[in-house]
Design brief:
Blueprint lengths: L19 H26 L2 H21 L6 H40 L4
Helix pairs in contact: 1-2, 1-3, 2-3
């Protein structure tokens, strides 16, 4: 025995309690959560030099999308932006430290006498 598929609960149009912005907000919050996971994995795998700035950029995009819908961004977006900023700063400081260490090593080797062009 088959039963007919039930129709909509509201006889005319969509449910008046349905707000299409909430569906988009849920999608954006899920995307922000996924980016938060990707950035966290980037810390452990060693790809934080790429996931940090991308997370920061994506968090700004998500926040802008929430603001255009007239909604406050959820905590996932705020946490993603914070993690992206911290990761970018750590990578920048590490890169500068590496450049200074290489410069000191090059100057040390050059002044030791091994760099004598005759």
């Amino acid at each position: 025995m088959t039963y007919p598929t039930p129709g909509p609960n509201v006889p005319y149009g969509i449910n008046p309690q349905y707000d299409p912005r909430m569906a988009r907000a849920a999608q954006l919050a899920e995307s922000a959560r996924n980016w938060l996971i990707i950035c966290g994995i980037g810390w452990f795998v060693g790809f934080m030099w790429i996931t940090g700035p991308l997370a920061w950029y994506q968090a700004n995009q998500f926040a802008r999308d929430f603001q255009t819908m007239g909604l406050a961004p959820p905590s996932e977006v705020t946490n993603l932006r914070l993690l992206g900023i911290i990761t970018t700063i750590v990578v920048a400081v590490g890169f500068l430290f590496l450049m200074v260490a290489l410069a000191v090593m090059f100057i040390g080797f050059a002044s030791y006498g091994g760099f004598n062009p005759r």
